[in-house]
Amino acid sequence: xxxxxxxxxxxxxxxxxxxxxxKVAQKRELYDAVDERKIHTGNIPRLxxxxxxxxxxxxxxxxxxxxxxxxxxxxxxxxxxxxMFLVYAVGFIDDLVDLRARYxxxxxxxxxxxxxxxGFRFYSIALPFQLGSIAIPSYISYPLTVIWIxxxxxxxxxIDGMDGLAGGVSAxxxxxxGVFFLLGGDFGAAFICFTIMGSIFGFLIVNLxxxxxxxxxxxxxxxxxxxxILPLIGPGAGHSEIGFVPAxxxxxxxxxxxxxxxxxxxxxxLSVFSPDKLHLHHKLLDLGLSVRGALGVIYSAQVxxxxxxxxxxxxxxxxxxFLNIAVWLIYAALFYALGxxxxxxxxxxxxxxxxxxxxxxxxxxxDSLRAALKTSLVGAAFSVKRTILK
Length: 390
Description:
Layout: H1 2-27, H2 48-67, H3 77-97, H4 101-118, E1 124-126, E2 133-135, H5 138-158, H6 165-183, H7 187-204, H8 216-229, H9 244-250, H10 252-267, H11 280-286, H12 291-310, H13 317-355, H14 362-389
Antiparallel strand pairs: 1-2
Helix pairs in contact: 1-2, 1-7, 2-3, 2-7, 2-8, 3-4, 3-8, 4-5, 5-8, 5-10, 6-7, 6-8, 6-12, 9-12, 10-13, 11-13, 13-14
């Protein structure tokens, strides 16, 4: 019952706050900038993260004060709340005055190092077939967890480029983590997850296409940071109740999208922080999908990942482990295929501008999509086969 109250309370507060935030943002002309890499038009307020964070914070603090359980986070509940606030705050400032990336990174890194030092880190990786788990040496665990926190935080920010995208992916992820904690008996951690989900749902009411408000950096950084921390807040903050493999699986879309961005920008000799229009949602839109259609594809892919991540709760550990790894390979193949299609479209687009015949290249683009999918999926199948035979 308390989980339902947390979810409903956060949803209600978030939904009520959004129209007020929209009015304030419109009055002060706090709109998301329109440029060549954005897909929206018109003046859309960018302070939705304020409603997400405030609704979450009110419900969380009320529960923390009334229950006095410390959320079973090893007695570091207030440190966790402080770091969440600082990451949100730097994002909110960026929404107002456009901070340099280095300042946001410093705050994110400080919060990550601080929490890892308190014990929020990956301690082991579970193995299949009743082989137990491998303890991660501290000299690997500390940097690995810091990289994980920074990576997920910024990965969520990178995919926040289409109506309903970052919010929907975050809501699904929080729900999966909440189920893990709930079935593991960690109700405090589950409460945090479902409260975050409720805050996001209240925001999605006005963010699904056509969006009336965006979450901005404040919302994206706060959600990314929170989702990166959730797998680390098991009882005593000394054991990961979710596990590294399922955590990666449920966040695979933003993780792969970020890796793809790093690789293509590095190859182009650009900074990894350079913006472009080659993210997953851009590629789906380039294939002719509408915003709703692209969102539906990504939501479907995310739901599938959630089910695979949860498979360990109902399937033998060995089968679930290999299902997760197989899905990693399949999704890598799909991302690679989309990359090939995007590259082909850019090349054909250059040729079209010279020849003036864009329509003639459409069948070729379709053929390249089928060929890329076939090549990458066959490669993924062989990779899965080799993995299983090992």
